[in-house]
Predict the structure.
Amino acid sequence: MAILADFRRHWSFERSLRIDPQSKPEVYRRILDAADFLSVNYWLELLFAAGIATLGLVLNSPGVVIGAMLISPLMGPILAAGLALAAGDLFLGFRSFINLLLSVVVSVTFAATMVWLLPFQTATTEILNRTSPNLLDLGVAVFSGLAGSLVLARGGGGGGVTALPGVAIAVALMPPLCTVGFGVGSGFQWPIVSGALLLFLTNLAAIIASAFVVFLIVDMDSPEVRERIDASIRVSGKEDLLFQLLERTPLARSLAHVGQLRWRVAMIVAVLAMLAIPLRQSLLQLRDETIARTAVRDTVQSLAPRGSVLSQALDISSDRVRAQLVVTQAVKPEAVETARRALIQKIGKDVEIVVHQVAGEHEIEAIRGSLQRPLPPTPPTPAFAELAAEIRRQADPALREAWPEALATLTAVEVRVRETAPVILARYEAKKPLDAGAIEVLRRVVARRLKIEAVEVEGAWSRPSPKATQSMPKSPPP
Protein backbone atom coordinates (compact mmCIF):
# COMPACT_ATOMS: atom_id res chain seq x y z
CA MET A 1 0.00 0.00 0.00
CA ALA A 2 2.87 2.35 0.74
CA ILE A 3 4.29 1.69 -2.72
CA LEU A 4 0.91 2.42 -4.33
CA ALA A 5 0.50 5.63 -2.34
CA ASP A 6 3.99 6.73 -3.28
CA PHE A 7 3.24 5.98 -6.96
CA ARG A 8 0.08 8.05 -6.88
CA ARG A 9 1.94 10.90 -5.22
CA HIS A 10 4.63 11.00 -7.88
CA TRP A 11 2.58 10.08 -10.96
CA SER A 12 -0.30 11.95 -12.62
CA PHE A 13 -1.65 12.58 -16.08
CA GLU A 14 -0.29 16.08 -15.79
CA ARG A 15 3.28 14.87 -15.36
CA SER A 16 3.00 12.06 -17.92
CA LEU A 17 1.74 14.53 -20.53
CA ARG A 18 4.55 16.97 -19.62
CA ILE A 19 2.16 19.79 -18.77
CA ASP A 20 3.79 22.66 -16.95
CA PRO A 21 1.61 23.62 -13.94
CA GLN A 22 2.86 27.20 -14.21
CA SER A 23 1.36 27.51 -17.72
CA LYS A 24 -2.18 26.58 -16.67
CA PRO A 25 -3.32 30.11 -15.70
CA GLU A 26 -2.08 31.41 -19.04
CA VAL A 27 -3.90 28.61 -20.90
CA TYR A 28 -7.04 29.39 -18.90
CA ARG A 29 -6.71 33.06 -19.80
CA ARG A 30 -6.29 32.35 -23.51
CA ILE A 31 -9.37 30.10 -23.55
CA LEU A 32 -11.32 32.79 -21.72
CA ASP A 33 -10.27 35.38 -24.30
CA ALA A 34 -11.21 33.01 -27.15
CA ALA A 35 -14.81 33.04 -25.90
CA ASP A 36 -15.05 36.85 -25.95
CA PHE A 37 -18.15 37.68 -28.01
CA LEU A 38 -17.23 41.38 -28.19
CA SER A 39 -14.05 40.81 -30.20
CA VAL A 40 -14.17 42.39 -33.66
CA ASN A 41 -11.45 40.04 -34.91
CA TYR A 42 -13.54 37.02 -33.94
CA TRP A 43 -16.58 38.16 -35.92
CA LEU A 44 -14.52 39.11 -38.95
CA GLU A 45 -12.92 35.64 -38.98
CA LEU A 46 -16.36 34.07 -38.55
CA LEU A 47 -17.88 35.98 -41.48
CA PHE A 48 -14.89 35.28 -43.72
CA ALA A 49 -15.04 31.56 -42.88
CA ALA A 50 -18.81 31.45 -43.46
CA GLY A 51 -18.48 33.16 -46.83
CA ILE A 52 -15.68 30.88 -48.02
CA ALA A 53 -17.46 27.74 -46.78
CA THR A 54 -20.75 28.71 -48.47
CA LEU A 55 -19.11 29.36 -51.83
CA GLY A 56 -17.04 26.18 -51.51
CA LEU A 57 -20.16 24.12 -50.87
CA VAL A 58 -22.03 25.67 -53.81
CA LEU A 59 -19.01 25.24 -56.10
CA ASN A 60 -18.56 21.67 -54.85
CA SER A 61 -14.90 22.39 -54.08
CA PRO A 62 -13.38 20.39 -51.16
CA GLY A 63 -10.26 22.57 -51.19
CA VAL A 64 -12.23 25.77 -50.64
CA VAL A 65 -14.25 24.13 -47.85
CA ILE A 66 -11.03 23.04 -46.12
CA GLY A 67 -9.80 26.62 -46.31
CA ALA A 68 -12.92 27.77 -44.46
CA MET A 69 -12.29 25.16 -41.75
CA LEU A 70 -8.82 26.59 -41.14
CA ILE A 71 -10.11 30.16 -40.80
CA SER A 72 -13.12 29.36 -38.62
CA PRO A 73 -12.69 30.49 -34.97
CA LEU A 74 -15.50 28.28 -33.61
CA MET A 75 -13.13 25.91 -31.81
CA GLY A 76 -12.35 28.67 -29.29
CA PRO A 77 -15.77 29.05 -27.60
CA ILE A 78 -16.48 25.32 -27.89
CA LEU A 79 -13.31 24.39 -25.98
CA ALA A 80 -14.14 27.19 -23.54
CA ALA A 81 -17.48 25.49 -22.85
CA GLY A 82 -15.64 22.24 -22.08
CA LEU A 83 -13.30 24.03 -19.68
CA ALA A 84 -16.27 25.79 -18.04
CA LEU A 85 -17.88 22.41 -17.33
CA ALA A 86 -14.63 20.91 -16.05
CA ALA A 87 -13.87 23.84 -13.73
CA GLY A 88 -17.48 24.63 -12.83
CA ASP A 89 -16.88 28.23 -13.95
CA LEU A 90 -20.22 30.01 -14.34
CA PHE A 91 -18.76 33.16 -15.90
CA LEU A 92 -16.82 31.21 -18.55
CA GLY A 93 -19.88 29.05 -19.19
CA PHE A 94 -22.14 32.04 -19.82
CA ARG A 95 -19.52 33.67 -22.00
CA SER A 96 -19.00 30.61 -24.20
CA PHE A 97 -22.75 29.90 -24.45
CA ILE A 98 -23.58 33.42 -25.63
CA ASN A 99 -20.68 33.33 -28.07
CA LEU A 100 -21.77 29.99 -29.55
CA LEU A 101 -25.41 31.03 -29.82
CA LEU A 102 -24.57 34.27 -31.61
CA SER A 103 -22.04 32.49 -33.85
CA VAL A 104 -24.62 29.94 -34.99
CA VAL A 105 -27.24 32.60 -35.73
CA VAL A 106 -24.80 34.86 -37.58
CA SER A 107 -23.24 32.03 -39.63
CA VAL A 108 -26.56 30.52 -40.71
CA THR A 109 -28.07 33.92 -41.51
CA PHE A 110 -25.03 35.05 -43.50
CA ALA A 111 -24.88 31.78 -45.47
CA ALA A 112 -28.64 31.80 -46.14
CA THR A 113 -28.43 35.37 -47.44
CA MET A 114 -25.57 34.50 -49.80
CA VAL A 115 -27.43 31.46 -51.15
CA TRP A 116 -30.64 33.47 -51.59
CA LEU A 117 -28.74 36.02 -53.70
CA LEU A 118 -27.25 33.35 -56.00
CA PRO A 119 -28.93 32.80 -59.40
CA PHE A 120 -29.16 29.04 -58.72
CA GLN A 121 -29.53 26.86 -55.63
CA THR A 122 -28.46 23.34 -56.50
CA ALA A 123 -27.46 20.87 -53.78
CA THR A 124 -23.94 19.68 -54.63
CA THR A 125 -22.11 16.59 -53.42
CA GLU A 126 -20.29 18.61 -50.74
CA ILE A 127 -23.66 19.75 -49.39
CA LEU A 128 -25.33 16.34 -49.50
CA ASN A 129 -22.35 14.72 -47.75
CA ARG A 130 -23.13 16.80 -44.67
CA THR A 131 -26.81 15.87 -44.38
CA SER A 132 -26.53 12.24 -43.22
CA PRO A 133 -24.33 12.08 -40.08
CA ASN A 134 -23.86 8.80 -38.19
CA LEU A 135 -21.96 7.40 -35.22
CA LEU A 136 -18.71 7.49 -37.18
CA ASP A 137 -18.96 11.31 -37.32
CA LEU A 138 -19.43 11.31 -33.54
CA GLY A 139 -16.24 9.28 -33.19
CA VAL A 140 -14.30 11.71 -35.39
CA ALA A 141 -15.51 14.65 -33.30
CA VAL A 142 -14.57 12.92 -30.02
CA PHE A 143 -11.00 12.22 -31.12
CA SER A 144 -10.67 15.71 -32.59
CA GLY A 145 -11.86 17.28 -29.35
CA LEU A 146 -9.38 15.19 -27.36
CA ALA A 147 -6.55 16.24 -29.65
CA GLY A 148 -7.44 19.94 -29.56
CA SER A 149 -7.89 20.01 -25.78
CA LEU A 150 -4.59 18.23 -25.23
CA VAL A 151 -2.74 20.71 -27.47
CA LEU A 152 -4.21 23.60 -25.49
CA ALA A 153 -3.53 22.00 -22.11
CA ARG A 154 0.14 21.67 -23.06
CA GLY A 155 0.32 25.37 -23.82
CA GLY A 156 -1.08 25.47 -27.37
CA GLY A 157 2.25 24.85 -29.05
CA GLY A 158 2.32 28.49 -30.17
CA GLY A 159 -0.74 28.00 -32.31
CA GLY A 160 -3.32 29.62 -30.07
CA VAL A 161 -6.91 28.61 -29.45
CA THR A 162 -8.26 29.32 -32.93
CA ALA A 163 -5.29 28.04 -34.94
CA LEU A 164 -5.37 24.26 -34.70
CA PRO A 165 -5.15 23.24 -38.38
CA GLY A 166 -5.23 19.48 -37.93
CA VAL A 167 -8.18 19.56 -35.55
CA ALA A 168 -10.02 22.16 -37.64
CA ILE A 169 -9.80 19.96 -40.74
CA ALA A 170 -10.62 16.73 -38.92
CA VAL A 171 -13.90 18.01 -37.47
CA ALA A 172 -15.93 20.35 -39.68
CA LEU A 173 -17.70 23.06 -37.69
CA MET A 174 -18.37 25.84 -40.18
CA PRO A 175 -19.42 23.73 -43.25
CA PRO A 176 -22.43 22.14 -41.47
CA LEU A 177 -23.65 25.56 -40.36
CA CYS A 178 -23.32 26.90 -43.90
CA THR A 179 -25.15 23.81 -45.17
CA VAL A 180 -27.99 24.71 -42.80
CA GLY A 181 -27.87 28.21 -44.30
CA PHE A 182 -28.04 26.71 -47.79
CA GLY A 183 -31.16 24.75 -46.83
CA VAL A 184 -32.77 27.90 -45.43
CA GLY A 185 -31.73 30.20 -48.27
CA SER A 186 -32.82 27.80 -51.02
CA GLY A 187 -36.43 27.62 -49.85
CA PHE A 188 -36.08 25.96 -46.43
CA GLN A 189 -35.33 22.39 -47.53
CA TRP A 190 -35.95 20.56 -44.25
CA PRO A 191 -33.96 17.36 -45.03
CA ILE A 192 -30.84 19.47 -45.66
CA VAL A 193 -31.45 21.75 -42.66
CA SER A 194 -32.14 18.93 -40.19
CA GLY A 195 -29.31 16.68 -41.37
CA ALA A 196 -26.66 19.43 -41.31
CA LEU A 197 -27.89 20.75 -37.96
CA LEU A 198 -27.63 17.25 -36.48
CA LEU A 199 -24.03 17.01 -37.75
CA PHE A 200 -23.12 20.36 -36.15
CA LEU A 201 -24.75 19.44 -32.83
CA THR A 202 -22.88 16.12 -32.92
CA ASN A 203 -19.55 17.86 -33.40
CA LEU A 204 -20.42 20.47 -30.78
CA ALA A 205 -21.41 17.98 -28.07
CA ALA A 206 -18.52 15.61 -28.78
CA ILE A 207 -15.86 18.35 -28.66
CA ILE A 208 -17.29 19.82 -25.43
CA ALA A 209 -17.37 16.36 -23.84
CA SER A 210 -13.80 15.60 -24.96
CA ALA A 211 -12.52 18.95 -23.69
CA PHE A 212 -14.31 18.37 -20.39
CA VAL A 213 -12.53 15.03 -19.91
CA VAL A 214 -9.06 16.33 -20.85
CA PHE A 215 -9.25 19.51 -18.74
CA LEU A 216 -10.58 17.51 -15.80
CA ILE A 217 -7.84 14.86 -15.76
CA VAL A 218 -5.05 17.46 -16.10
CA ASP A 219 -6.44 19.39 -13.09
CA MET A 220 -7.26 22.63 -14.87
CA ASP A 221 -9.70 23.27 -11.99
CA SER A 222 -7.05 22.94 -9.27
CA PRO A 223 -7.30 25.48 -6.40
CA GLU A 224 -4.00 27.12 -7.37
CA VAL A 225 -5.16 27.72 -10.94
CA ARG A 226 -8.60 28.91 -9.84
CA GLU A 227 -7.15 31.32 -7.28
CA ARG A 228 -4.90 33.00 -9.83
CA ILE A 229 -7.47 33.10 -12.65
CA ASP A 230 -10.28 34.35 -10.35
CA ALA A 231 -8.09 37.21 -9.17
CA SER A 232 -7.27 38.08 -12.78
CA ILE A 233 -10.93 37.88 -13.86
CA ARG A 234 -12.10 40.17 -11.05
CA VAL A 235 -9.52 42.76 -12.00
CA SER A 236 -10.32 42.69 -15.73
CA GLY A 237 -14.03 42.11 -15.09
CA LYS A 238 -14.51 45.73 -14.16
CA GLU A 239 -14.52 46.46 -17.91
CA ASP A 240 -16.47 43.33 -18.93
CA LEU A 241 -20.18 43.96 -19.52
CA LEU A 242 -21.21 40.33 -18.94
CA PHE A 243 -19.25 40.12 -15.68
CA GLN A 244 -20.87 43.31 -14.42
CA LEU A 245 -24.35 42.03 -15.26
CA LEU A 246 -23.79 38.69 -13.54
CA GLU A 247 -22.33 40.37 -10.48
CA ARG A 248 -25.63 42.21 -9.96
CA THR A 249 -27.64 38.99 -9.94
CA PRO A 250 -28.05 36.30 -7.24
CA LEU A 251 -25.52 34.26 -9.24
CA ALA A 252 -22.69 36.56 -8.19
CA ARG A 253 -21.50 34.16 -5.48
CA SER A 254 -21.31 31.33 -8.00
CA LEU A 255 -19.15 33.05 -10.58
CA ALA A 256 -16.15 30.95 -9.60
CA HIS A 257 -17.76 27.51 -9.11
CA VAL A 258 -21.25 26.19 -9.68
CA GLY A 259 -22.84 22.74 -9.49
CA GLN A 260 -21.46 19.39 -8.47
CA LEU A 261 -19.25 17.35 -10.77
CA ARG A 262 -21.60 14.37 -11.01
CA TRP A 263 -24.42 16.56 -12.34
CA ARG A 264 -22.17 18.06 -14.99
CA VAL A 265 -21.08 14.57 -16.05
CA ALA A 266 -24.71 13.41 -16.15
CA MET A 267 -25.66 16.35 -18.36
CA ILE A 268 -22.94 15.56 -20.91
CA VAL A 269 -23.80 11.85 -20.97
CA ALA A 270 -27.50 12.63 -21.47
CA VAL A 271 -26.80 14.94 -24.42
CA LEU A 272 -24.50 12.41 -26.11
CA ALA A 273 -27.05 9.63 -25.54
CA MET A 274 -29.82 11.67 -27.19
CA LEU A 275 -27.62 12.37 -30.19
CA ALA A 276 -26.52 8.75 -30.45
CA ILE A 277 -30.08 7.54 -31.19
CA PRO A 278 -30.51 9.21 -34.65
CA LEU A 279 -26.81 8.73 -35.41
CA ARG A 280 -27.08 4.99 -34.79
CA GLN A 281 -30.12 4.78 -37.08
CA SER A 282 -28.18 6.56 -39.85
CA LEU A 283 -25.23 4.21 -39.40
CA LEU A 284 -27.48 1.13 -39.63
CA GLN A 285 -29.15 2.56 -42.74
CA LEU A 286 -25.74 3.18 -44.29
CA ARG A 287 -24.75 -0.39 -43.46
CA ASP A 288 -27.90 -1.83 -45.06
CA GLU A 289 -27.44 0.28 -48.20
CA THR A 290 -23.80 -0.77 -48.53
CA ILE A 291 -24.68 -4.45 -48.16
CA ALA A 292 -27.55 -4.14 -50.65
CA ARG A 293 -25.48 -2.28 -53.25
CA THR A 294 -22.64 -4.80 -53.01
CA ALA A 295 -25.02 -7.74 -53.31
CA VAL A 296 -26.84 -6.20 -56.30
CA ARG A 297 -23.56 -5.43 -58.04
CA ASP A 298 -22.38 -9.04 -57.67
CA THR A 299 -25.76 -10.31 -58.86
CA VAL A 300 -25.73 -8.09 -61.95
CA GLN A 301 -22.33 -9.49 -62.91
CA SER A 302 -23.75 -13.01 -62.72
CA LEU A 303 -26.87 -12.11 -64.75
CA ALA A 304 -25.27 -10.36 -67.71
CA PRO A 305 -21.76 -9.65 -69.03
CA ARG A 306 -20.27 -6.34 -67.95
CA GLY A 307 -20.34 -4.83 -71.44
CA SER A 308 -24.03 -5.59 -71.95
CA VAL A 309 -25.26 -3.59 -68.92
CA LEU A 310 -26.10 -0.06 -70.04
CA SER A 311 -27.30 1.22 -66.69
CA GLN A 312 -28.62 0.11 -63.34
CA ALA A 313 -30.76 1.98 -60.82
CA LEU A 314 -31.20 0.91 -57.21
CA ASP A 315 -34.05 1.99 -54.94
CA ILE A 316 -33.56 0.97 -51.29
CA SER A 317 -36.26 1.37 -48.64
CA SER A 318 -36.59 0.02 -45.11
CA ASP A 319 -38.25 -3.24 -46.21
CA ARG A 320 -37.72 -3.49 -49.98
CA VAL A 321 -35.02 -3.26 -52.66
CA ARG A 322 -35.84 -2.59 -56.31
CA ALA A 323 -33.14 -3.03 -58.94
CA GLN A 324 -33.76 -1.84 -62.50
CA LEU A 325 -31.33 -2.95 -65.23
CA VAL A 326 -30.99 -1.96 -68.87
CA VAL A 327 -29.12 -4.60 -70.90
CA THR A 328 -28.44 -5.31 -74.55
CA GLN A 329 -28.50 -9.11 -74.23
CA ALA A 330 -31.42 -11.31 -73.32
CA VAL A 331 -31.64 -12.52 -69.72
CA LYS A 332 -33.68 -15.61 -68.95
CA PRO A 333 -36.56 -15.19 -66.48
CA GLU A 334 -35.29 -18.25 -64.58
CA ALA A 335 -31.95 -16.52 -64.02
CA VAL A 336 -33.68 -13.37 -62.79
CA GLU A 337 -35.79 -15.36 -60.32
CA THR A 338 -32.73 -17.26 -59.06
CA ALA A 339 -30.87 -13.99 -58.56
CA ARG A 340 -33.84 -12.48 -56.75
CA ARG A 341 -34.01 -15.36 -54.27
CA ALA A 342 -30.27 -15.17 -53.67
CA LEU A 343 -30.53 -11.44 -52.94
CA ILE A 344 -33.37 -12.01 -50.47
CA GLN A 345 -31.18 -14.45 -48.54
CA LYS A 346 -28.24 -12.03 -48.52
CA ILE A 347 -29.96 -8.81 -47.47
CA GLY A 348 -33.08 -10.09 -45.71
CA LYS A 349 -35.50 -7.83 -47.59
CA ASP A 350 -38.05 -8.24 -50.35
CA VAL A 351 -36.32 -7.81 -53.72
CA GLU A 352 -37.68 -6.87 -57.14
CA ILE A 353 -35.47 -7.11 -60.23
CA VAL A 354 -36.69 -5.44 -63.41
CA VAL A 355 -34.67 -6.11 -66.57
CA HIS A 356 -35.18 -4.06 -69.74
CA GLN A 357 -33.54 -5.32 -72.92
CA VAL A 358 -32.77 -2.90 -75.75
CA ALA A 359 -30.89 -3.34 -78.99
CA GLY A 360 -27.33 -2.05 -79.02
CA GLU A 361 -26.14 0.51 -81.55
CA HIS A 362 -23.98 -2.05 -83.37
CA GLU A 363 -26.92 -4.42 -83.79
CA ILE A 364 -29.14 -1.68 -85.17
CA GLU A 365 -26.46 -0.57 -87.63
CA ALA A 366 -25.89 -4.17 -88.76
CA ILE A 367 -29.59 -4.66 -89.44
CA ARG A 368 -29.84 -1.43 -91.39
CA GLY A 369 -26.76 -2.26 -93.44
CA SER A 370 -28.18 -5.64 -94.48
CA LEU A 371 -31.31 -4.11 -95.99
CA GLN A 372 -31.52 -3.20 -99.69
CA ARG A 373 -33.32 0.06 -99.20
CA PRO A 374 -33.28 2.60 -96.41
CA LEU A 375 -35.92 2.20 -93.77
CA PRO A 376 -37.42 4.75 -91.41
CA PRO A 377 -35.94 4.82 -87.93
CA THR A 378 -36.89 1.75 -85.96
CA PRO A 379 -39.54 2.64 -83.39
CA PRO A 380 -38.59 1.86 -79.82
CA THR A 381 -39.63 -1.45 -78.37
CA PRO A 382 -42.29 -1.39 -75.66
CA ALA A 383 -39.64 -2.16 -73.05
CA PHE A 384 -37.46 0.71 -74.21
CA ALA A 385 -40.42 3.08 -74.46
CA GLU A 386 -41.46 2.19 -70.94
CA LEU A 387 -37.92 2.72 -69.64
CA ALA A 388 -37.52 6.03 -71.47
CA ALA A 389 -40.84 7.28 -70.11
CA GLU A 390 -39.83 6.32 -66.56
CA ILE A 391 -36.46 8.04 -66.86
CA ARG A 392 -38.07 11.16 -68.31
CA ARG A 393 -40.72 11.19 -65.58
CA GLN A 394 -38.05 11.30 -62.88
CA ALA A 395 -35.54 13.51 -64.67
CA ASP A 396 -37.96 16.19 -65.91
CA PRO A 397 -38.91 17.73 -62.51
CA ALA A 398 -35.31 17.59 -61.26
CA LEU A 399 -34.07 19.29 -64.42
CA ARG A 400 -36.72 21.99 -64.30
CA GLU A 401 -36.12 22.62 -60.59
CA ALA A 402 -32.41 23.30 -61.12
CA TRP A 403 -32.78 25.00 -64.52
CA PRO A 404 -31.29 28.55 -64.67
CA GLU A 405 -34.44 30.39 -65.80
CA ALA A 406 -32.63 33.72 -65.80
CA LEU A 407 -30.28 32.50 -68.52
CA ALA A 408 -32.36 30.22 -70.74
CA THR A 409 -35.87 28.87 -71.36
CA LEU A 410 -36.30 25.11 -71.24
CA THR A 411 -38.58 23.98 -74.08
CA ALA A 412 -38.41 20.17 -74.09
CA VAL A 413 -36.80 17.20 -72.33
CA GLU A 414 -35.98 14.03 -74.30
CA VAL A 415 -34.43 10.69 -73.33
CA ARG A 416 -31.96 8.68 -75.39
CA VAL A 417 -30.00 5.55 -74.56
CA ARG A 418 -26.40 5.08 -75.56
CA GLU A 419 -24.22 2.04 -75.17
CA THR A 420 -22.75 3.35 -71.91
CA ALA A 421 -25.50 5.36 -70.22
CA PRO A 422 -28.87 7.07 -70.68
CA VAL A 423 -28.74 10.60 -72.09
CA ILE A 424 -31.10 13.43 -71.09
CA LEU A 425 -31.40 15.95 -73.92
CA ALA A 426 -32.56 19.38 -72.79
CA ARG A 427 -33.76 21.63 -75.59
CA TYR A 428 -33.68 25.30 -74.68
CA GLU A 429 -33.79 28.79 -76.12
CA ALA A 430 -31.30 31.45 -75.07
CA LYS A 431 -29.25 34.29 -76.44
CA LYS A 432 -26.10 32.18 -76.01
CA PRO A 433 -25.41 28.55 -75.08
CA LEU A 434 -25.06 27.51 -71.45
CA ASP A 435 -21.49 26.90 -70.37
CA ALA A 436 -20.11 23.48 -69.45
CA GLY A 437 -20.28 24.25 -65.73
CA ALA A 438 -24.04 24.81 -65.81
CA ILE A 439 -24.59 21.59 -67.80
CA GLU A 440 -22.46 19.67 -65.28
CA VAL A 441 -24.53 21.00 -62.36
CA LEU A 442 -27.71 19.88 -64.13
CA ARG A 443 -26.17 16.45 -64.77
CA ARG A 444 -25.39 15.98 -61.08
CA VAL A 445 -28.92 16.93 -60.07
CA VAL A 446 -30.42 14.42 -62.53
CA ALA A 447 -27.91 11.71 -61.51
CA ARG A 448 -28.87 12.14 -57.86
CA ARG A 449 -32.60 11.94 -58.68
CA LEU A 450 -32.24 8.88 -60.94
CA LYS A 451 -29.54 7.29 -58.73
CA ILE A 452 -27.55 6.61 -61.91
CA GLU A 453 -24.10 8.19 -61.65
CA ALA A 454 -23.25 7.54 -65.32
CA VAL A 455 -26.22 9.51 -66.68
CA GLU A 456 -25.37 12.23 -69.22
CA VAL A 457 -27.08 15.57 -69.82
CA GLU A 458 -26.74 17.39 -73.13
CA GLY A 459 -28.11 20.74 -74.16
CA ALA A 460 -29.66 21.52 -77.57
CA TRP A 461 -29.44 25.28 -77.93
CA SER A 462 -31.45 27.44 -80.29
CA ARG A 463 -31.98 31.17 -80.52
CA PRO A 464 -35.35 32.44 -79.34
CA SER A 465 -37.86 33.89 -81.76
CA PRO A 466 -38.19 37.71 -81.78
CA LYS A 467 -41.45 37.57 -79.79
CA ALA A 468 -39.96 35.20 -77.26
CA THR A 469 -36.86 37.39 -76.99
CA GLN A 470 -38.95 40.34 -75.88
CA SER A 471 -40.58 38.28 -73.13
CA MET A 472 -37.40 36.53 -71.93
CA PRO A 473 -35.70 37.90 -68.79
CA LYS A 474 -32.46 39.72 -69.40
CA SER A 475 -29.33 37.74 -68.61
CA PRO A 476 -27.27 39.10 -65.72
CA PRO A 477 -24.00 40.82 -66.65
CA PRO A 478 -20.98 38.51 -66.65
Notes: The mean pLDDT is 76.
